[in-house]
């Protein structure tokens, strides 16, 4: 009983802290986005260049602490995963809750190919991308008929099936024991064993994914995807083939997540089904939601924050998953558009605003967020 | 221009359209009037390919389009202003218009058409970078029409353009439709507000429970006793 009271009190406290933290973060990010879009293009470029240089020279800045450096590689892995999920959720508007399955399939493809057949890491990673693209296509097919929660349930089912196969197909995957001894990548006979090399490989993946996201968003296909997300019938009346676009989003997201999985396998040299559970999908979803569904910069920030935060809060790690759930709930109530969203700058009234006006007076301060 | 023959549509077991036939000449405004659930919107959706379970014949300039996917039909020159406007609320006005030109590749001409759309609807130009969801109902209807025009249609189909708008705005919208028609656009208009629809149209068809009950020149229909009783609320 005493334990129950203690846990409840802790969770209640966590809700309170999350409310305040998200409230403050929202204000801060609103201020930053408004300030940033107000300054002229030249200065924007300078700021971006400084950030870019910092990221490129990060291995030298973080030299002193292998722990921080390793965490930053994990952060970049999650940036790629969150960005790829964002293509499905943010661009195409399809709620997929099974992203860890692609991550897992990619990791196992690389693990099996490199360990059992001695195939080079690079070819294995591309194979991982191809295999997960095929799975993305297979998972994309139900989206023709399913929407919203029904699709979410289907994708959860898919991820669970993948995990169970990884656990039970002991002949191939070695079950819960996992596959150890995944080799490091090589270039012209050089073995890239150091974390610095891994950092630059994943950084290349990040840049590639940002580039694809950006091109997709600002192309005709991207416009079509957003139109489908907005109003599928109207989009079809404009001549958009919504079926093809939705499948394309799943295939692209699957391929990118699969390649990231392959990288991850090589990075930690060991795969095991526990790395690809449902909670992993929820974590990636949290990153997308926290940063801002559909916003590239927002999702990057969301992924970085949610990788670093659990490391910083190791002491309360038992509550980690409870906090992710609470975070999703609190975000949906007070900041459904995420930390950074395009709407902030366009003056759209959001649900948060309407909700705030209808809510309890005392809660209004919490629930209404100021719009640019 | 557009010839519809013996069009049948089924929603599962329900026989929604029971052999509708009508035709539109080039440069004409044709209106389908009728009450709720008569099958007017269903007819439009069947033509634009949004409903696939249909039989009969739909020919655009003697080319059979029945059974084609909707993107092909838009490409051939039929665009639709859907019921309830269905503006993309998250996209801004300009992006909404560009969505109308989704299937076109000629960037330069799209820009010209964009300027043309802003010329016909100057209010849209003022709100160029504003999100579609923040426009008023009348502006959204204008945007929906302009968006459909961006596909350079041969036939423009409008589904209930007066829905939910103030009478003065409805008048403005219908003036626009007449003006576009005078510039040579062929229009198929579906309306519950039979009075205003028959005033702008050349030919009218009265739809009742999935059938064409009767048809005629629009001015004649306005005087027709059956129409006056059933749809214009007069004794």
TrEMBL record, chain A:
Superkingdom per UniProt: Bacteria
TM regions (residue ranges): 6-25, 46-61, 67-89, 96-115, 121-141, 197-217, 247-270, 282-309, 321-340
Keywords: Cell membrane, Membrane, Transmembrane, Transmembrane helix
Organism, scientific name: Anaerovirgula multivorans
Subcellular location: Cell membrane
Database matches in InterPro entries: ABC_transp_permease, LivM-like
Lineage: Bacteria, Bacillati, Bacillota, Clostridia, Peptostreptococcales
Major subcellular location class: membrane
GO cellular component: plasma membrane
Membrane topology recorded in Swiss-Prot or TrEMBL: Multi-pass membrane protein
Gene Ontology molecular function terms on file: branched-chain amino acid transmembrane transporter activity
Protein name: Branched-chain amino acid transport system permease protein
From TrEMBL, chain B:
Annotated Gene3D superfamilies: P-loop containing nucleotide triphosphate hydrolases
Keywords: Amino-acid transport, ATP-binding, Nucleotide-binding, Transport
Keyword set includes Nucleotide-binding: yes
UniProt GO molecular function: ATP binding; ATP hydrolysis activity; branched-chain amino acid transmembrane transporter activity
Domain ABC transporter: start-end pairs: 2-234
A Pfam family that the UniProt record links to this protein: ABC_tran
GO biological process, one term: L-amino acid transport
InterPro entries hit by this protein: AAA+_ATPase, ABC_branched_ATPase_LivF/BraG, ABC_transporter-like_ATP-bd, ABC_transporter-like_CS, BCAA_Transport_ATP-bd_LivF, P-loop_NTPase
Origin: domain of life: Bacteria
Family: Belongs to the ABC transporter superfamily.
Protein name: Amino acid/amide ABC transporter ATP-binding protein 2, HAAT family
Protein species of origin: Anaerovirgula multivorans
């Amino acid at each position: 009983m005493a334990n129950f009271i203690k846990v409840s009190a802790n969770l209640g406290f966590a809700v309170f802290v999350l409310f305040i933290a998200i409230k403050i973060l929202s204000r801060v990010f609103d201020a930053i986005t408004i300030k940033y879009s107000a300054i002229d293009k030249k200065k924007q470029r300078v700021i971006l260049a400084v950030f870019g240089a910092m990221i490129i020279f990060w291995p030298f800045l973080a030299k002193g602490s292998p722990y921080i450096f390793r965490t930053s590689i994990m952060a970049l892995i999650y940036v790629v995963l969150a960005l790829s999920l964002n293509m499905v959720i943010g661009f195409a508007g399809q709620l997929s809750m099974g992203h860890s399955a692609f991550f897992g399939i990619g990791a196992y493809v690389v693990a099996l190919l490199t360990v059992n057949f001695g195939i080079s890491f690079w070819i294995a990673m591309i194979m991982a991308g191809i295999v997960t693209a095929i799975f993305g296509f297979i998972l994309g097919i139900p989206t023709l008929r399913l929407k919203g929660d029904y699709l979410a349930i289907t994708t959860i089912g898919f991820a669970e099936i993948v995990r169970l196969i990884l656990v039970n197909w002991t002949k191939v995957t070695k079950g819960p024991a996992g596959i150890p001894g995944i080799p490091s990548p090589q270039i012209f006979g050089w073995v890239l064993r150091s974390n610095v090399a891994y950092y630059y490989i994943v950084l290349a993946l990040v840049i590639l994914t940002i580039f694809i996201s950006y091109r997709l968003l600002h192309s005709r296909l991207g416009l079509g995807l957003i139109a489908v997300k907005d109003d599928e019938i109207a989009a079809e009346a404009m001549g958009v083939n919504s079926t093809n676009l939705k499948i394309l989003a799943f295939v692209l997201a699957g391929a990118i997540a699969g390649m990231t999985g392959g990288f991850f396998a090589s990075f930690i040299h060991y795969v095991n089904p526990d790395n690809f559970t449902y909670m992993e999908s929820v974590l990636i979803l949290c990153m997308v939601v926290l940063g801002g569904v559909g916003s590239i910069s927002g999702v990057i920030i969301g992924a970085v924050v949610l990788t670093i935060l659990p490391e910083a809060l190791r002491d309360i790690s038992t509550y980690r998953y409870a906090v992710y759930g609470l975070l999703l709930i609190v975000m949906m109530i007070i900041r459904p558009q995420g930390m950074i969203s395009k709407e902030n700058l366009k003056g759209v009234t959001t649900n948060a605003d309407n909700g705030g006006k209808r809510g309890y007076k005392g809660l209004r301060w919490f629930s209404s967020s100021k719009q640019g | 221009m557009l010839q519809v023959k013996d069009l049948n549509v089924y929603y599962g077991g329900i026989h929604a359209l029971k052999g509708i036939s009508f035709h539109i000449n080039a440069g004409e405004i044709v209106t389908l009037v009728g009450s709720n659930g008569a099958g007017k919107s269903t007819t439009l959706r069947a033509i634009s390919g949004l409903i696939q379970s249909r039989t009969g014949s739909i020919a655009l300039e003697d080319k059979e389009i029945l059974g084609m996917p909707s993107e092909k039909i838009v490409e051939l020159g039929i665009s639709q202003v859907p019921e309830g406007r269905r503006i993309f609320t998250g996209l801004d006005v300009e992006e909404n218009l560009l969505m109308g030109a989704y299937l076109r590749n000629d960037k330069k001409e799209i820009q010209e058409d964009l300027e043309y759309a802003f010329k016909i609807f100057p209010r849209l130009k003022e709100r160029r970078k504003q999100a579609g969801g923040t426009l008023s109902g009348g502006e959204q209807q204008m945007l929906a029409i302009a968006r459909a025009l961006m596909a350079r249609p041969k036939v423009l189909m409008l589904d209930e353009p007066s829905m939910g708008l103030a009478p003065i705005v409805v008048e403005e919208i219908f003036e626009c439709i007449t003006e576009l028609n005078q510039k040579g656009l062929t229009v198929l208009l579906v309306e519950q507000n039979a009075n205003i629809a028959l005033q702008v149209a050349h030919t009218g068809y009265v739809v009742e429970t999935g059938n064409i009950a009767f048809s005629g020149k629009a001015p004649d229909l306005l005087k027709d006793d059956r129409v006056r009783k059933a749809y214009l609320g007069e004794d």
